[in-house]
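Training component of the fellowship. As part of building independent skills, the fellow (R.M.) carried out the full modelling exercise for a liganded target. The chosen ligand was magnesium ion. The inputs are recorded below so that the supervisory panel can assess the work.
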Amino acid sequence: MQHAPRSPIVTAMRVRVVENRMRMTRSQGSGSMSGKLRRVIVRIDTDGGIRGYGEAAPWTVFSGTVEAAAAALHVHLRPLVIGREIGRIAAIVEAADTALHGHPEAKAALEMALFDASGKALGVPIHALMGGAVCTTIPLSFSLANPDLDADLTLATDMAGSGINIFKVKTGFLDHRTDMHRLERIRAKLGDATDLRIDYNQALAPISALSRLRAMEQFDLTFIEQPIPARYPRAMAALTDALDTPILADESVFSPEDALAAAQCGLADGVSIKLMKSGGMLKARAIAAIATAAGMPCYGGTLWEGAIGLTAAAHLIAATPAFTLGCEFYMPRYVFLPEQAEAAMTIRDGQIVVPTGPGLGIAIDEDILDRITVESFD
Ligand SMILES: [Mg+2]
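Fellow's submitted model of the complex:
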C-alpha cells in the first residue's frame, strides 16, 4: 500500500489579541460598537517553514468574548495541533469538538490556519481544496448601521459610485417610525435599482413584528434578516409564512443541527452563514448543504472579522454554489483604519475578488500585526 506524502508538522502556535480603532459607530438591534474593536489572530508555524493564519472575531452580544476565544486557542486547542500534520484538518476539527464544547470562533480560527498552511504546502488556494471555484468574485453588500443617517447617505452614495449596489440597513436600534423614515430616505436616495435588505438582529418583539414588517415590505426588500429573537422559532416560522418578503435566519442558525431544525420547521427562507457561528469552513459547508436541500439560499455574513477571516470565508463561498445572496466582507476596507489592516482585500466594481494564490492568498503584514497587538500567548 502506498502512503500519502506527509504534510508539514505544526511546531509552534502564536495567539494574539489585536485592537483596531473604528472609523465610525456601528449600531445594530442587539448592540453598538464604536471606538476600539478587539479580535484574535492565530499563527501556526511548521517544520517546513510554512505559516498559516486564522482569526476569531467574537461579539459579546452575539456569540462569545475575545478573552474566551484567546484562552480556548492558547490553553485548549494548542495541544491538539502541536506535533500534528497540517493536512489532517477534519481530524483536528473533530478532536477540537471532542475536547472543547462551544467556542466556534476559536475553532474557526484554528481551522483557517490549517487550511491556509495546507494550501501553501500544496501550492493551491483554499477554494481548490474545497472543490474548486464556481465564481471568481462575490457581490458585496455594505451594512448601513450609523445612527447618523446623513453620514450613511453620503457614504452609500459614494459607494454606489464605486459599483456597490447592495445595502443592508440595520434596523431596530431606533424606534419603528424612525426606521420607516430611514428606509424612505435611503430608497429615495439610492433609487429603485439598488438591492436593499434590512436586518433587525433580533430587535423586534414577536407581538409587534408582523405589523411592522408588513409596513416595511413597501420598500421592495430582498430579505428581512432575523427580525425576532432566536428563542422564538415558532413565531419566526409564522412570520416567514405570513410575509411576502423572504426572511433570512442569522442568530437562529449557528450549527448544521440548527440548519436542519430550521429546514424542518420552515423557520426562514434563507440562511446567513458565518464562520464565527459555525466553527469553520467544514461545518459552514454542511450548513450550506442542508440549506440547499431545503431550497434556502445562503448569504456570507460576518461579525467583526478582518481580512484573514473574511478571505477564508470568500474561499468557502467561491467553492459553494449555495451562496447566491452576496456577502458583507467590507470591514478591513471601510471600517478599520487603513494603517491598522494587517492584510488587504481586493474590491472591484462592487465585488470581492477571490484570491488565487496559495492558501488564503493574501500577504499578512507582521509589522502591522505587531503594532496592533495588545496581548500575545505563545
Ligand atoms: Mg445579521
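The panel noted the following from the submitted structure. The two ends are 39 Å apart (CA to CA). The chain is about 40% helix and 20% strand.
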